[in-house]
TrEMBL record:
Compartments reported by the entry: Nucleus, Nucleolus
Keyword Nucleus: yes
GO molecular function terms listed in the Swiss-Prot or TrEMBL record: DNA binding
GO CC list: DNA-directed RNA polymerase complex; nucleolus
Native source organism of the sequence: Harpegnathos saltator (Jerdon's jumping ant)
Any one GO BP annotation for this protein: DNA-templated transcription
Protein name as annotated: DNA-directed RNA polymerase I subunit RPA49
Family: Belongs to the eukaryotic RPA49/POLR1E RNA polymerase subunit family.
């Protein structure tokens, strides 16, 4: 082969124009006499938003998409030699992979079926390398449906305790972002929290009518904890307000016990006695997203913290957590309740850890992280 020496005088690269295309047929190669019969064209696929090359030999249609230049390791160049002037031109070319279109896509075909047909063509008409690659690919394929059936049979007899699925917050990671305004300088326990920071007084008063009916004895369907509290506050001068708070706790619990598919529906009712309270609970204890209302764990913690403060207020700042836990419609562990109680400043009794008390002076706020971790952070600063 005769060799030439050359000096590159100029290089022009224009990626905005259509470059010469070298076609690689995935199912084999065309014979020389078949190349002359090929017609081709460039089109824009609106669904994929890509440039597509279509080829046809009169019987079979082939197509392929423009390769991404970012994934190309090298540039392919075509060499044109002018024998008269002796000059050589280097023109950048693109390598496109095309595959046969097995069926007119009037109805979008299942991708798995298309892959199977392409594999069949590769094994019948492809090169040795293509055949070997296709066989290796088929060996690695997994039948999703059979695996799904096996998994369903495996887990069908497994029982899961929902209590174990609740998010347990270690003490060192509990934050107080969901805590209402807390007066740590208060000299009277009644002044530590203002319940109207949890629910405005005007909204709580809309529950007074039902509260008075309950005090008259209309307590059908109420849980034991509810009726037990009624007996203790029956002679309380503020009993109407306290029953209204109890109804608020009950409605909040119903909201979190409701399945997510029902919670996303419009006109959800968790408090039949008051539309204002119903709206307040849903707006306060949920967040809006593109898929509808959501109730993340942080929002659930906020609701339980508010309910704990209201329950302590109703019962003169001493609360049996086990009875309170059983009243809640949503499942929660006793340990989680103890962790949340520490956030609001309540402390467990020495004789019975299940009973908590809110008293003056309040203990130190629960740290966000351990002191050990704090020291590590300081050393890294």
């Amino acid at each position: 082969m005769k060799q030439f020496k050359a000096i590159i005088e100029d290089v022009k690269v224009d990626t905005t124009k259509i470059q010469p295309i070298i076609v690689n047929f995935q199912n084999g190669e065309l014979k020389d006499e078949e190349v002359k019969k090929i017609s081709c064209g460039l089109f824009h696929d609106q669904r994929e938003d890509q440039t597509v090359l279509a080829l046809s030999d009169g019987q079979t249609v082939y197509k392929g998409y423009k390769p991404d230049p970012k994934t190309q390791m090298t540039r392919k160049m075509l060499v044109f030699h002018n024998k008269v002037t002796g000059k050589v031109r280097l023109v950048e070319a693109e390598l496109w992979d095309v595959s046969p279109v097995l069926q007119k896509p009037v109805i979008e075909e299942n991708k798995n079926d298309v892959d199977d047909k392409i594999a069949m063509l590769n094994k019948q008409f492809g090169s040795k390398k293509v055949k070997r690659r296709t066989e290796q690919y088929e060996k690695l394929k997994v039948n999703v449906h059979s695996v799904k059936d096996q998994l369903e049979k495996t887990v069908s007899n497994i029982e899961v305790n929902r209590v174990d699925l609740s998010t347990e917050l270690p003490n060192e990671y509990i934050t107080n972002t969901n805590l209402p305004s807390c007066n740590r300088e208060a000299t009277n326990v009644k002044d530590v929290y203002n319940i109207y920071d949890i629910i405005p007084k005007s909204k709580l008063e809309t529950l007074y009518d039902q509260a008075m009916e309950i005090l008259k004895g209309n307590i059908d369907g109420k849980p034991k904890f509810f009726t037990r509290i009624l007996r203790t506050i029956q002679s309380d001068p503020d009993n109407v307000n306290k029953v209204a708070m109890l109804l608020y706790i009950e409605a909040t619990s119903i909201w979190f016990a409701m399945p997510m598919k029902d919670a996303k529906k419009r006109d959800v009712v968790v408090c039949q006695a008051s539309k204002e309270v119903n709206t307040h609970i849903i707006d306060t204890y949920s967040v809006l997203s593109a898929s509808g209302r959501l109730r993340p764990n942080t929002i659930k913690d906020k609701a339980i913290i508010h309910s704990l403060i209201l329950a302590l207020t109703i019962l003169n700042y001493t609360l049996d957590l086990e009875s309170f836990r059983l009243m809640l419609e949503t499942r929660i562990s006793l340990k989680k309740l103890l962790d949340l109680s520490k956030i609001i400043g309540a402390v467990p009794n020495k004789d019975d850890k299940k009973i908590i008390t809110l008293k003056i002076p309040l203990p130190a706020p629960v740290p966000v992280v351990k002191k050990k971790r704090n020291s590590i952070n300081k050393s890294n600063q």
